[in-house]
Write a structure and sequence with these properties.
Chains A, B, C, D, E, F: One of its GO terms (molecular function) is kinase activity. Chains A, B, C, D, E, F: Keywords: Kinase, Transferase. Chains A, B, C, D, E, F: It comes from Murimonas intestini. Chains A, B, C, D, E, F: Belongs to the carbohydrate kinase PfkB family. The structure is a homohexamer of 341-residue chains. Helix content of chain A is 34%, strand content 22%. In chain A, helix 5 links the parallel strand 10 and strand 11. Chain A starts with a strand and ends in a 10-residue tail after the last helix. Chain A has a single domain, classed as Ribokinase (UDP-N-acetylmuramoyl-L-alanine:D-glutamate ligase, 3-Layer(aba) Sandwich). By secondary structure, chain A is α/β, with parallel strands linked by helices. Chains B and C meet through strand 8 of B and strand 15 and helix 9 of C. Strand 3 of chain D pairs antiparallel with strand 3 of chain F, so a sheet runs across the interface.
Chain lengths: 341, 341, 341, 341, 341, 341
């Protein structure tokens, strides 16, 4: 029987000019839907898991479009609450070469940002669930939503459900101080932590020496150190850190490291020609949860998660549209891109 | 020298599925910009007038797109204020046959909705101006914006600038009671009033017997009565009432009436096959202002305004993209649509 | 609790040039999915019912796209079988004015056309179901599929599930003789029969005098007669007949009649400006099933079904994307198409 | 063996905004190719005739695109000459309702406008030909091209090839006086003349009383008179006159009359909902030539030509994409637009 | 006078999502046409040769589209047979970075797959021909089609027409054993053989040591060995082997080797940034045939063929849209991609 | 107060197939507007300068579209003259990998090419201006336009306005001899000269040893020599030379050198993955003028100009759509392309 995973967060309307057009040139905008935890849910549904996404969306058609975008890929939307005033929006301009991608958020006042603990019945939602996932973006939406997160974490722990969190710091949503305080409280309930070095530093002030994220150079020992500090402080069973080297908006190197409390497992490193970078980290989370629930060995776990997210970078939209077979094939070594007939 | 017209209100990002697709089917959304008073400004710029639009938009690229959409057609945007958090949005689904068009507003918290009197220097804005126009939507955005409207009206009157107002009642924005109170105060400063029968009834409780807007039947005597009541109560020099008969989402009849305090002038009635109905009323306002500033006779005035807005219904987007020549030709009687080579 | 409806048939990839382009002009083809019974399932899911669609699709991505197209709108796809070689295809060219729409079928050898009784476990499928629906297209796919239909009908009857059938004769799939023989057998199990006059004549040789479908003239007494003959021969509880008058590819009149064994109920007649005519009959079936399961009175039943299908003609694609509220509003008399803000 | 028809004229790049967008709104332009005589050649190739189009196009890729647009539909392009500087262009904006379609020509200096008698070997071109067709647009391109026309007409006559001419007056290209003089000379060689009332009046000053083309009213007796005057003056064997009533840019009535020197044959009149009106007259010419070469009776001839051109109005682009069967079906009376499966 | 080349095989409808969209994301599919031998014919027509493509397509409009796609580029389609039930289809999803392109074939039951020797009169087809080309895909369609191939080969030999064959093994169509048996018989008539290392191994079990196609490493000595074995076994005059190194779905290295029975000629190697990889091998075949018929020296022959196919990888669709001049310029050393004004 | 810059030249309609499609494949063409000096004006307006573009365009809608394309981005179009017959056109096919981009000009007979000194009142235009810019393309349009250039240069000098010129040799427009003669005269008035090595050689016969532009190798000493020769011959205050290394149509290296009469300043060199290469040189000119008018130091000047034009290569269309902040950020060293949220 398929494992059941619950993810909780905001899903937004994503509006993006076609191709490499800039905002000021666009006469139409691609309209898709996404958000950290929703993206993870789609990844898992595509792997055949029983993934449910929990959020609050407005009752009108735009809210319904967000629901449909998830149903289309098999995500269970029966716990999604209807109400509130609007669906959060983000505008995305795809970068190229030296020109970076640009995101403009328009999410204030969204149904999810105004959700409260009264909106969700976690006992019912967690019935039969194996895993609960959220990211640092969700509690950043406001104290009301952080309170929902806390309630969810407690309910999950009470049912012995594994809890994972992607730190995902967003400086437009809250200060580092506030983030550190709120996330510190939530991390008490977290078993598996996902981060990149910036997150650990921004949220908890945990730094690794010798790494400058804009320089593109990475320091493996530093990452080990960050992972260990995180695990030691919060008692995480696992810490996974993604390693991105940004050569240009088109070309990135991608790898990751897993710390299981004992050892450090570094994945292969992939040179990626990027189609769409947004949701890259979420697809890593999806791969990691799948691997853990499937019982992969640590090295296999990190290879699967990295291969999955490497493939995501070749796919338009927030969602990772790949199967277990496709990830396995890449993790197994075939990145030649030869036509499959 | 071209006459100078100032219009004041909100400009929004309009997001609409292509053709007759419903919201739930759309994978991309046409992204244009519009709003009652902005639409009037574009009409006037297209007629060769010196039209300036006053509003407040956020500093980011989406706000800039709104500015550019107006500059493109020659509207003076130098009085537009930058600041605030977001650009208002409206989603538009085009109806067909018995299925009505649908508008979903997402305008709360917009830069304009949070603008205050401190944002605008009306003495500077009205320097050399001949006309000031706003609609009932603008004060409905909030007491703060109503206060700006009042200040603008007073400044206009102090400079002997003609003031026009399109009542344009929006029940999603305020109650009839509130509308009646605020608009009543503003109408003291208005010289030219534009309305449809519903507006007069919704805002001021002024009704004409025997007309049911959903039945598609119109009552000319009733309209005369409404116009006279409006003029008598507020001292309007002119009252123009648009007469729409809705046969289906594709087919409407369109006409209007002008009351100049003495006589009632009914325009020709046009059977319209609709391309885009939004902005139809605004294009009437633009035609009316042009006619008045150009010194047309009353019958010519109403014929020009109706022909202009009839043409608008054949044009995609909020803006009326027609020249004086094109309007004159239709007002002069050629609605045969024969190819012009 | 929502009523549960099972529909059974083929879902195809629909490939259609954009707008009014002819096949020989098309450089791209809109790719949607549809088929008589799938369309009914989407209608019902959009009305909030628990609708499941049963079919067989190939295991590859194109088959998955068909599944996703239904999941997106909330149809239960858990009974869809994977296997076989291909997804049936139909090419659709939209007509205009005097030029008719054109359909080219490419469905031979499809997974569904080669499905057998071994593929479906009707006892499981019908667990908790209230209604079973199929059309005359499904048994026409081949003797193997007709055998599945028969098995399904028997299983439905054994569980006291209401069975409806839309006769839907397709001369490309089978002869009138064959159709009459197979459908005659299946109709023994049918409670609610949907047809147009051509169907009754083509399948069962039941004719009404004085009607020529290409002339656009309809004969109400003839329709009564056809309905009564059908009910008398097969013991149908209800017979619904759709009445289409084709003025041109763009303009049709649309109405229907319901016979409940006692009386004949004629709906209002709608003049339709057509956006997409395909799936019009299926949307009538969806409206009828909803009405019956909701317990509407006969006149309300036929008005709902006709209003629902009238709206379908204004919507792109096979699926009817309307809510109960929208249908109710039109059935209640507002076909003016005025903008809803 | 298929009849061989030679047509001679200019083919242009047609640049048109999508749908009903105005020029000033367009960010992309549909790029197709067309021109009076090229359109006739495509009509005939689609009917299975051996149609060759003669012109001169530049050697670059845009010229090649024009060649390819004709080859694609089976037109023989082996007599097309390469050279000169540019391909003529016309910009087309599609009208709607009361807003007329608009054509902007940018054809000066085209390869064809600068072609001379040295470019064409008519003896070779006419080898085995049955019919030669040109329009009044071609000699209007300049004295050099008029000289080529004259040479072609003489060569055709020398080989007993039937010559047809569509008068097609274009006031942007030449004056009425010049047109009358040049066309008068060419018409000496013409057997079959095609015109609308405006053409006869503009080119030869031949008028029918009581017809006002912008009023939409037609006067049948007047048309008879015009046809007879034309035949009497130039000795035409046949004169065909198209009868368009323009209700709006979307809706036209369409019919025609044939005079064979003895009798007047009026076709049925079709109410058309227009998809693309450009090339409507050319498709009439194509239908007429097909009918004549096939040996249809006069009434059948005019019905075929009118049905063919009625269908053209439902098709995007200059070319008439219909088969003989489709035309026959409409001419035979089925204009109901019912789906063909 | 242009050389005449006959190619024989299947042409399919190619349906591909735009850009890098996956199948499950696509709402429309680009509709083009292609197939190994059709692609070669277009290459040759674009080089100015007299290329005819022989196949069987259904009589309906989709079949006609395939004909038109070839006529558009000047291929002689007069030997194409009409009949049968359907046009074969292939679905193509373009890969990116580590994600491979994916092809789903839906070609069973196509008109061509059911063609028989009765459909083709090779004596007539080969009248005046200089070259006959087919690929291993064609006999793989079925014994009936293999029989046609054999008949064609014999007829070609009887007229001293050069015969070329691209081995092109497709494991979805037949087993290696079957392929070896049928192709072995056909190769008796072949003068020029085109292959990649996989083909030689798959079809005839001829292997070169030390090459792993998924590793991207190539072994030049191995290729020499394969070519010699092929020539020795079947008496080929020339064997050409393409050498692809797949770095990713976006980046490939491309080169080839020609063996003329005496010497081995290796081309330059091109690093390619891929726009569309499908048809790459066919464009090599087209370049090779052109070179041979033009009488190029061996080194020039292989350089032309490789440069031609290098350019193909920069072009959308199956067909190679390049001129002799463009190929010559690249073969001559200018691969800098500088703008040509 | 913003600096005022006047640029003078031709603006053309740019027609380009989408993505990497070749001309012969295109069914629609993106329609944007551009031209050397217009592109510079947009660059400067985007930097917040008061930029006016001077030219002549036809009175019709296509001419208006060119005006609107500039107004949209804030360029002052009040000095644009209306008249003449047509807007110049250029067709652009985007290259990929080894396939070069291709430009077909269709600009003969344009309104601008036929403009005369009577069309422009330079005293009025230069009122309050700080800088005047033109390119070598403008005088190449004809002696009449060269005369306007000369008049403009003289008027600028009389007002102490800085004059810049980008040599920009176009061999389709004039011979090297003619160019040398006319440009030599104009350069007497020029203060700042922009060139690439080819320009200096083509126009003035000034060559640097050891550089072969198609080989992709650059010789820095040679460039110094060219700059010095140019400055010595014409007395330029500054000479800026762009250094492009063309690896393929997708990948270029980009840098530049500034000579200020004393020293040579080489910029960083950027590896660019190209989105649209057209307008690259113009964006360099825009960056250079901004830097000079802002008073940047020489090294900062060349870094800003190169970073600005590097970013241009990542943007669709002729215009450089970047802000001062974006250029500064890249010039300051962040080319990592990391997402900006």
């Amino acid at each position: 029987m398929a494992k059941k995973v619950i993810t909780f967060g905001e899903i937004m309307l994503r509006l993006a000019p076609e191709g490499y057009y800039r905002f000021v040139q666009a006469e139409s905008l691609g309209a898709t839907y996404g958000g950290g935890e929703a993206n993870v849910a789609v990844s898992l549904a595509n792997y055949g898991m029983d993934a449910a996404f929990v959020t609050k969306v407005p009752k009108h058609e735009i809210g319904q479009c967000a629901v449909n975008s998830l149903r289309r890929y098999g995500v269970d939307t029966s716990y999604m609450v209807r109400g509130g005033n609007r669906l959060g929006i983000y505008f995305l301009e795809k970068g190229a070469s030296q020109r970076p991608s640009k995101v403009i958020y328009d999410r204030a006042g969204s149904s999810m940002a105004e959700a409260t603990t009264a909106d969700f019945n976690w006992d019912e939602i967690f019935e039969g669930a194996d895993w609960f996932h959220f990211t640092g973006i969700t509690p950043a939406l406001g104290d009301n939503v952080a309170a929902v997160c806390l309630e969810a974490c407690k309910a999950a722990k009470a049912k012995n459900i594994t809890v994972s969190c992607d730190l995902n710091y967003r400086n437009k949503l809250w200060s580092k101080e506030k983030a550190g305080q709120v996330m510190g409280q939530l991390c008490e309930y977290v078993d598996v932590c996902i981060a990149n070095e910036e997150d650990a530093s921004d949220v908890f002030g945990i730094k690794a020496a010798g790494t400058d994220v804009t320089s593109g150079k990475l320091n493996h020992d530093g990452y080990k150190d960050v992972a260990k500090q995180l695990a030691d402080r919060f008692g995480f069973q696992k810490v996974a850190i993604t390693l991105r080297e940004s050569i240009s908006a088109n070309d990135n190197m991608w790898a990751a490291m897993l710390y299981d409390g004992n050892d450090y497992y570094f994945s292969k490193k992939y040179p990626m020609h990027i189609v769409d970078r947004v949701g890259g980290g979420d697809s890593f989370g999806g791969g990691l949860i799948y691997s853990c629930l499937t019982g992969f060995e640590p090295q296999q776990t990190i290879e699967f998660a990295v291969a999955a997210s490497c493939l995501k970078h070749s796919i338009e939209g927030d969602f990772n549209q790949v199967s277990v077979d496709e990830v396995m094939k890449l993790a197994g070594g075939d990145g030649s891109g030869r036509v499959q007939r």
